[in-house]
């Protein structure tokens, strides 16, 4: 019951941890196109986050060859006018529709990378685009937090993407780059500095401020209450906390061997966390982020390491108040009358979203703590009480110049796309449905740092700072 309500609570924060998937049959790999006139195509450019991504590209990367793409030419022309461009010589416009596979194939053959913002939800729209990219060797990135969609994408297209060299990366926004990259950095630091594997990884959301769009909210509500028979849902549920685990596919129903040590994504209530030296409560993004991190860990051989995500609070009492508020909101969403009232009179509607001021004044700070094994087992006679505490490394990922779910997400996803487009082409593959950390690693970290994210790694927990609410 607790885990069910925690999934509902995603709607309270950014409404991004939603689940969905659809299916498309794979095909043989055709020869890749020799001519790729574009570096990046921004698909779904006229959506709420897509517009922010287009604006980010226009203001920061005028020399990069990119195009705006979507279903409506008139909307694309309006967006191009808003950006201050006149014609196709400045920014080409490409028309493509998920329902028209031929249009998608023409789109992906014109570019090195497609970055996709057309969700609401991604699961019943984006799989045809992923399939086209996998067939034609075009790299792909998006901002989805829909675990079943990512599950279906891997099951359908991973092998095809490996064969074509297409690198497919989901969850390239606030969910789940801070989690995935932070965990990767903290675990790497533990191995490099202390020569130990991690026994646990924990993300602590120190402070966040942001809003939600009505389109994302409508998607989350639809998926939470109408997810029956959606491809990828059953496959993800079979794996529990390890919904994106790349191994043991398909799952043998008679094999009860756990995929890993985790049984939950976050805590059930307020508690004191000695690792981060703070009181923590359930983190509403955990169910979207944690499976991505566990997939990275599986790909990197860190299968015995636990992972969870929590939200830091100033005090036990404040945590209790916030947690009860979240659970109350989740209960109200389960009841049709109160859900109808909230969606019609309280929550933002499709087309609405955070104001420009809210987008500019938002921020986030996430810290991932990696805990090593016991420092020493010097002798069997030594008592456990006298053993020094295990080493800890901490990776901080923060951004103080914009809303995490929208402005920061546009930045992170576009930098991911540029990292894909401008990286040296690897001979003999380099593709597959991977994660941001395992697909791009340090190259992505350095791009994000240059773009304004604060990403630092320390060998000791930083001094506890007050939490902004």
Unreliable segments of 5+ consecutive residues: 1-33, 376-384, 461-469
What is the alpha-carbon Rg in Å? Answer: 22 Å
Structural class: alpha/beta
Number of strands: 14
How far the N terminus sits from the C terminus, by CA atoms, comes to: 28 Å
- Bulk shape: globular
Largest sheet: 7 strands, parallel
* Overall pLDDT confidence: 85
Instruction: Summarize the amount of helix as a percent range.
Output: 40-55%
How large is the share of residues in beta strands?
15-25%
Strand order of the largest sheet: 3-2-1-4-5-6-13
Summed up, the helix count is 16
> What series of H and E elements makes up the topology?
HHEHEHEHEHEHEHEHHEEHEHHHEEHEHE
Task: Please provide a written account of the structure.
There is one protein chain. This protein is an alpha/beta fold and 469 residues long. Helices cover 40% and strands 17% of the residues. The protein contains 16 helices and 14 strands. The strands form two sheets. Strands 3-2-1-4-5-6-13 form a seven-stranded parallel β-sheet, sandwiched between helices. Helix 4 links the parallel strand 2 and strand 3. The protein is globular and about 70 Å long. It starts with a helix and ends in an 11-residue tail after the last strand.
């Amino acid at each position: 019951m607790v885990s069910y309500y925690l999934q509902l609570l995603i709607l309270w924060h950014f409404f991004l941890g939603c689940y969905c998937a659809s299916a498309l049959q794979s095909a043989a790999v055709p020869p890749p196109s020799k001519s790729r006139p574009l570096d990046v195509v921004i698909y779904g450019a006229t959506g709420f986050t897509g517009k922010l991504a287009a604006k980010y590209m226009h203001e920061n990367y005028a020399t990069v060859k990119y195009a705006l793409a979507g279903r409506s030419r008139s909307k694309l022309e309006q967006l191009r006018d808003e950006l201050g461009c006149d014609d196709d010589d400045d920014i080409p416009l490409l028309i493509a529709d998920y329902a028209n596979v031929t249009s998608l194939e023409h789109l992906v053959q014109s570019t090195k990378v497609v970055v996709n913002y057309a969700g609401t939800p991604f699961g019943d729209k984006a799989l045809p685009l992923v399939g086209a990219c996998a067939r034609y060797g075009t790299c792909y990135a998006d901002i989805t937090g829909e675990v079943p969609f990512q599950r279906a994408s891997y099951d359908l297209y991973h092998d095809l993407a490996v064969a074509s060299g297409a690198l497919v990366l989901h969850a390239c926004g606030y969910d789940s780059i801070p989690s995935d990259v932070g965990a990767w950095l903290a675990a790497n630091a533990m191995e490099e500095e202390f020569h130990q594997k991690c026994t646990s990884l924990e993300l602590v959301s120190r402070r966040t401020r942001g809003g939600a769009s009505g389109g994302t909210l409508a998607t989350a509500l639809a998926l939470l209450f109408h997810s029956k028979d959606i491809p990828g849902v059953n496959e993800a549920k079979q794996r529990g906390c390890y919904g994106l685990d790349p191994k043991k596919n398909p799952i043998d129903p008679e094999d009860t061997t756990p995929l890993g040590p985790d049984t939950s994504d976050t805590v059930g209530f307020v508690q004191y966390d000695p690792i981060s030296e703070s009181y923590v409560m359930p983190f509403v993004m955990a169910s979207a982020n944690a499976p991505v991190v566990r997939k990275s860990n599986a790909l990197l051989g860190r299968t015995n390491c636990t992972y969870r995500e929590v939200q830091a609070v100033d005090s036990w009492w404040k945590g209790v108040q916030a947690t009860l508020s979240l659970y109350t909101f989740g209960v109200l969403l389960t009841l049709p009358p109160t859900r109808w009232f909230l969606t019609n009179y309280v929550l933002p509607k499709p087309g609405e979203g955070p104001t420009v001021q809210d987008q500019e004044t938002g921020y986030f700070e996430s810290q991932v703590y990696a805990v090593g094994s016991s420092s020493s087992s010097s002798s069997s006679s030594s008592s456990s009480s006298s053993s020094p505490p295990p080493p800890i490394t901490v990776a901080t990922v923060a951004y103080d110049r914009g809303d995490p779910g929208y402005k920061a997400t546009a930045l992170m996803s576009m930098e991911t796309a540029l990292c894909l487009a401008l990286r040296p082409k690897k001979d003999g593959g380099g593709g597959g449905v991977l994660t941001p950390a395992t697909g791009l690693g340090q190259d992505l970290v350095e791009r994000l740092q240059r773009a304004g994210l604060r990403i630092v790694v320390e060998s000791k927990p930083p001094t506890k700072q007050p939490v902004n609410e």
